[in-house]
Design brief:
Helices cover 43% and strands 13% of the residues. The chain is an alpha+beta fold. The protein has two domains: 213 residues, Endonuclease III, domain 1, CATH 1.10.340.30; 120 residues, Alpha-Beta Complex (Nucleoside Triphosphate Pyrophosphohydrolase), CATH 3.90.79.10.
Length: 353
């Protein structure tokens, strides 16, 4: 595909607007590539206001790559607890180890080396190279594709990888050589504050005069994206089990898959929402007298919705943990384990009754 023509005023107007209107965010007060790397990973699929306290706490705990590289994974996941999408934290941890081992703790300033690092894809590489090193490399995410699809009336499906590559080629041609940082951040900021998905604030847009979608009045028809897959519903009984000394049974999730490596209370899967938890446990040869707490809630992932019922039980069977592949821990020590948000909710709800 030949790159469409773009009005030469676009880049100048965007950069000027960004410099005059950018939000004061902690990662914008530095050009430290390690900090910018952390911020970009945290900002993937997470709102800015949510990220700010996590970012500040994270760089306070791990101020240098060497310190993060030496940390245990459980420490990193605990620092990430509540941000979700925990594979981001694991990949960041592994990537920083590679930087320390192969580059002496210095984040590479070239595309070949930085793209070889675990967890750094084209977007993150472009963001680091442009923001930290002011190199004219594109950083194309959903916000940027939304802006540019409207500006240039590009109706390719933005869920496809080849469409993302199209935007990368277009932006590579128009990034100002000495203003790459402001240009890329300006696109991101424009998508976040002005060129919103459903109600774009076109009257405040600095590139309105260069926007073909605005000119034709079709802003909300872009970007073009295929429909999301239908969400799957899963039903679970969550077991808060204590032994005769008050210790609580928890277990660690597998190393691969959803919420890998995090800790949880044992969960019993139901085939349908009305299935009896006693019947399920009996089929698993688990003898446990459960009491319903009456607490029910849902937790939503991208493609899955968990429906969770909380049950309490007390047991004298010290070997029960073997049935669930778990461990007995002191209730006061629960805060030392990284739990996913869904099980943090369990703790909060139980403490409230």
């Amino acid at each position: 595909m030949t790159s469409p023509m773009i009005n030469p005023d676009f880049s100048q107007n965007l950069v000027r607007w960004f410099k005059d209107n950018k939000r004061d965010l902690p990662w914008r007060r530095t050009n430290n590539p390690y900090y910018i790397w952390i911020s970009e990973i945290m900002l993937q699929q997470t709102q800015v206001d949510t990220v700010i306290p996590y970012f500040n706490a994270f760089i306070n705990q791990f101020p240098e790559p060497e310190i993060l590289a030496q940390a245990d994974e459980s420490q990193v996941l605990k620092a990430w607890e509540g941000l979700g999408y925990y594979s981001r934290a694991r990949n960041l941890h592994q990537g920083v180890k590679e930087v320390v081992e192969s580059y002496g703790g210095h984040v590479p300033d070239n595309k070949k080396d930085i793209r070889s690092i675990k967890g750094i894809g084209p977007y993150t590489a472009g963001a680091i190279l442009s923001i930290a090193f002011n190199q004219p490399e594109p950083a194309v995410d959903g916000n940027v594709m939304r802006v540019m699809s409207r500006v240039l009336l590009i109706d390719d499906d933005t869920s496809k990888q080849q469409t993302k590559q199209t935007f990368e080629r277009i932006l590579s041609d128009i990034i100002p050589e000495h203003e790459a940082s402001a240009f890329n951040q300006g696109l991101m900021e424009l998508g976040a504050l002005i060129c919103k998905p459903k109600q774009p604030l076109c009257e405040h847009c600095p590139v309105r005069e260069q926007c073909l979608a605005f000119d034709e009045g079709v802003q909300t028809e872009y970007p073009v994206k295929k429909k999301k897959a239908k969400q799957r519903h899963e039903y679970y009984g969550v077991l808060f089990v204590q032994n005769d000394t008050g210790d609580v049974l928890i277990r660690q999730r597998p190393d691969q898959g959803l919420l890998a490596g995090l800790w949880e209370f044992p969960m019993v899967a139901f085939n349908h929402p009305n299935e009896s938890i006693s019947d399920v446990l009996e089929k698993q040869d688990v003898l446990l007298s459960l009491e319903s707490t009456g607490i029910q809630f849902t937790h939503t992932f991208t493609h899955i919705k968990w429906h969770m019922d909380i049950y309490k039980a007390r047991t004298f069977d010290r070997e029960l943990q073997e049935s669930f592949g778990g461990y007995w821990v002191n209730q006061e020590d629960l805060d030392q384990y990284p739990f996913p948000v869904s099980h943090q909710k369990v703790i909060q709800k139980l403490r409230a009754i």
